[in-house]
Design goal:
Blueprint (H helix, E strand, L loop, with lengths): L4 H11 L28 H14 L8 E2 L13 H14 L3 E9 L5 H20 L3 E11 L2 E10 L2 E10 L2 E10 H4 L4 H8 L6
Antiparallel strand pairs: 1-2, 2-6, 3-4, 4-5, 5-6
Length: about 200
């Protein structure tokens, strides 16, 4: 099995469920209460804070935590104006329900020791997320491939699900975190799933 950067980007999105319908509830205002008992809802901003903190603790400086649906997934050519319009509408609905981070390294300049250090820091990021209350529903598992390896892990916290992915070859490595709100993903339609998983969407 051969991994490519574009293919793995789509794998990460599809594995995360990248097809949702309707609005999301992450921006609901907190209920009125006394200051001593007031609790801020765990929404998109809180998820972003958790990712930023875990990356900082692991001293991962590359990549950027983004809110909204991944740009690479929003640029697929669906062959018609109607298809592109549907995808655009879908992305708009997804954006309030998604937080992402990714890091990619290419070329032969990365030594094995540097690659191992990147892996160690990514593992530290996952440990940092667990320390912030993210429960591993699917602990990290790395699968060897003919020309590299692919790591998958899933974590959950307060109605959000975090999908961690790391794919690598001898000259390329990509690590991603994609966090999605469960309520949004629970309302995916078959039409939307077909829209994202169509052959021409995997580039």
């Amino acid at each position: 099995m051969r991994i490519t950067a574009n293919r793995t980007g789509r794998i990460a999105a599809l594995a995360a469920g990248a097809v949702l319908a309707g609005g999301c509830g992450s921006d609901v205002a907190p209920p009125t209460s006394t200051p001593a008992t007031s609790m801020t809802p765990f929404g998109q901003d809180a998820v972003r804070h958790d990712l930023v903190a875990a990356l900082a603790t692991a001293q991962v400086a590359d990549g950027k935590v983004e809110v909204g649906y991944p740009e690479y997934s929003a640029q697929n050519d669906h062959g018609s104006a109607a298809g592109r319009r549907k995808l655009s509408d879908l992305v708009a609905r997804l954006s309030p329900c998604v937080v992402t981070w990714e890091s990619e390294h290419t070329g032969g300049s990365s030594s094995k020791s540097h690659s191992d250090e990147q892996d160690r820091r990514f593992d530290t990021v996952l440990s940092g997320l667990e320390a912030q209350g993210w429960r591993a529903s699917e602990p990290p598992v790395e699968t060897p491939l003919s020309d590299g390896a692919f790591l998958l892990a899933t974590f959950e916290k307060q109605e959000w699900t975090l999908h961690a992915r790391r794919a690598s070859t001898p000259t390329w490595k990509r690590s991603t975190l994609m966090v999605t709100e469960d309520d949004c993903f629970g309302r995916v339609t078959e039409e939307e799933r077909a829209l994202v998983e169509a052959p021409d969407a995997v580039r």
